[in-house]
Amino acid sequence: MATDAIRLPDDGVFLGRAFAEGWSHPAVVTVRDGSVVDITSKAAPTSRDICEQTDPAAFVAAASGKPVGTLADIAANSFAATRDPKKPYLLSPIDLQAVKAAGVTFVVSLLERVIEEQARGSIEKAEAIRADIASLIGYDLSKLKPGSDEAMAVKAKLIERGVWSQYLEVGIGPDAEVFTKCQPMGSVGFGSDVGLHPVSTWNNPEPEVAVVASSAGRIVGATLGNDVNLRDVEGRSALLLGKAKDNNASASLGPFIRLFDRSFSLDDVKSAVIALRVEGEDGFVLDGASSMAEISRSPEELVSAAVGPHHQYPDGFVLYLGTMFAPVKDRGEAGKGFTHHIGDIVTISTDELGALVNRVRLSPDCMPWSYGASHLMRDLARSGLI
């Protein structure tokens, strides 16, 4: 894998995490002049602590630290297949924050979720249902404001025609879908393998922007995410969402959090175009793109749906904002659409946030999740940082 695969822009303030065997604890890091710099301190020993600062970008920019290697070398060593664990490699850029995700926030994703439900997880039935649903709706849902009078009129029409769906409810109804993607410390980062539950035979990547919010619900930055999805499992029943979404190594984030400052703001997030590329060992290549300008609920609305008087997150949270990209390109037999093959390389990228690259494997074959919040607290305490 090329050393420039991370594609980090030259400007911006970046927050991440790194580790190597022999280090006493995972390091909180930033990037300066092509070097990865350890800025872990008593004032902010975790990524969570930095995101709780009044001005996280200013804090990181002013933090003293020590270089631990070049960005190119550390990025190249982060790929699980060739990693030397004795040398520094990147981790997910968050640690103690909760990991949440919003679903059905783009019309294309909305229609594909309806198809999954109608097909009951059968990939063979999906193509016929896709054509049928598209002709039946006969309305550009992307123009609807969720919860508006117009959206409620479409909802009534669809109920009358017998095709109402729980996915349409959260897609155009008044309430957003927000669910737990994984537990704190459970996400993986740039170069790590991402996992599929072995029961799945129809699955796909979900390229997304994820915003990072403080405990007060203030959005302080953004990163890239792969909300790995098992279409057949969720299609059988939405009550299987946990099995479809939350498995070992099924939540990828990175490569870094880009913190908001004069060079990067929420407006940049709202206008970002997220590129997806899947490269298979069989020579298959899939390219796609997702424009945040087409999201039906704003990042602020989605964050407000997650946090407030109804729900608190004392360590803050990261929120996947959803994707409009649902790959339907046939991979093999005509009409059966896309599904992952083991060994696929998934690259999710934007000009503003760099690239998040992961290899696809089965969850049991990915590195087991064995380092949790309790381990981090003990290691930081032993190092005198808390």
Average of pLDDT: 91
SSE topology string:
EEEHHEHEEHHHHEEEEEEHHEHEEHEEEH
What percent of residues adopt helix (DSSP H or I)?
25-40%
Radius of gyration: 20 Å
What would you note in describing this structure?
- Helix content is 26%, strand content 27%.
- It is α+β, with helices and mostly antiparallel strands.
- The chain is globular.
What topology emerges from the helices and strands here?
Elements: E1 13-19, E2 27-32, E3 35-38, H1 47-51, H2 56-62, E4 66-70, H3 71-76, E5 89-91, E6 98-103, H4 107-119, H5 123-137, H6 149-160, H7 166-172, E7 177-182, E8 193-196, E9 203-204, E10 207-213, E11 219-227, E12 229-230, H8 231-236, H9 241-245, E13 251-259, H10 266-270, E14 273-279, E15 285-291, H11 299-306, E16 317-320, E17 345-350, E18 354-362, H12 373-382
Parallel strand pairs: 6-16, 8-18
Antiparallel strand pairs: 1-2, 1-5, 1-13, 2-3, 3-4, 6-7, 9-12, 10-11, 10-16, 11-13, 14-15, 14-17, 17-18
Helix pairs in contact: 4-5, 4-7
Quickly describe the structure.
Helix content is 26%, strand content 27%.
Keywords:
386 residues, alpha+beta, eleven-stranded mixed beta sheet, 12 helices, 26% helix, globular
